[in-house]
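Data deposition worksheet. Section B asks for the primary sequence of the deposited chain exactly as it was used as input, without tags or linkers unless they were present during the calculation. Section C holds the resulting structure in token form. Section D is free text for depositor observations; keep each observation to a single sentence. Incomplete worksheets are returned to the depositor.
Section A, Depositor: J.P.
Section B:
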Amino acid sequence: MHDIRKGQQTTSDEAREANRTRGRPWSAAASDPDDGRCAVAAGSPAAAAGGSTTAYAQTARRGSKWDKTFPRNPEVDHRKVSFRNRLGIELVVDLYSPKRLRGRARALIVGHPFGGVKEQTSGLYPQTMAERGFVTLAFDASYNGESGGRPRHIASLETFVEDFSAAVDCLGTRRYVARDRIGVIGVCASGGFSLSAAQIDPRLKAVATVSMYDMGRAYRDGQGYAPAPGERNSVEERKRALAEAAAQRWAEFDGGKVRYGGGSTVPLKPSQQAAADEFATYYATPRGAHPRSHPLTLTSLGAIANFMPLAQIELPPARCCSSRVRRRIRATTARTPTRRPPSRGNCTSFPVPGMWTATTRST
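Section C:
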């Protein structure tokens, strides 16, 4: 690993271990014991200074300029790194850590909303949790943001789930991270992706969701899950939407222009439009908009509609929901408890014995 700020190769593993043995704090950003699997993202100062970024960071298009939608906290270390997931796709992530660490820290992975990027709300959460002593990681999902994968801006739900496990791979090999205390915060659609990942990856010891969204159900029932029963998408409407997406595949195969979004065959009903308007109050305004945030392709609809992340869930390690009714409906879909769960303000969690729990609040 190369130091992002100095462009110099880290050679202080022994000194770091000695300092930790003596109980003195140390900085993860200043001394990251890289094992070759995580690398400074190409385009960073380290790469510009001539340091090797290894085969895991080949695309020289990333910069180190702070381009988040939230202010930087000078009390938190930040560095941009990259690594490959199981499918060989390069993921670019923001790694946040406290200025000084003692021993091995708990770690959190934070996933962004559907079509979002790590520079938005999913970056604010990890920076805030790093203030509280966690080592945190915010990533751009495959095919999106600064991460690799082609074609661009497609939704591959299996891959989005895999991205969380790839983040565990990276964090669990950091010597300053307690690999048995890695959890995840899934924001919006990543709430569904993270719960799906936790079902198959036991290394994820806790899950917290913020306004969790099951994208498969959202496309089957309608935007916002259509809380008004009469406004849920009918079987016929689902068929029409899928037919539109399927026809678009032919058009693009013949060289036609790529279309993005959910299509136009099935217009939004009032409750669905209300959900879309709510999203726009953040993503379409200066406080939340980001140039790399992008709607996903219409041809992704089939894969999304077939996604059922909660079909096999037994008990999530931890789960939180917003005080807003529509958000609570989405989150409580994950599990109906047999007893009243502990509540922390506008958050609700379901702890599993032997696991540490993570909670968070929606913004």
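Section D:
Confidence is low (pLDDT under 50) at residues 1-26, 42-61, 318-332, 335-363.
The radius of gyration is 21 Å.
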